[in-house]
Amino acid sequence: MPDQQKYTNKLHDARVLIIGGSSGLGFTAAEAVLESGAGAVIISSSNPQKINNAIDRLKAAYPSRAGALSGHACNLADEANLENNVKTLFDVATDNGSKKLDHILFTAGDPLAIKPIAEADMAYMKKAGMVRFFAPLMVGKYAVKYLKEGREPSYTITSGAVALRPNPNWTVVGSFASGQGGIVRGLALDLAPRRCNAILPGAVETELWDGLEEGTRKALFKQVTESVPTKTIGQPGDVAEAYLYVMKDHNCTGSIVKTDSGHVLMGPR
Question: pTM for this structure?
Answer without folding.
Answer: 0.93
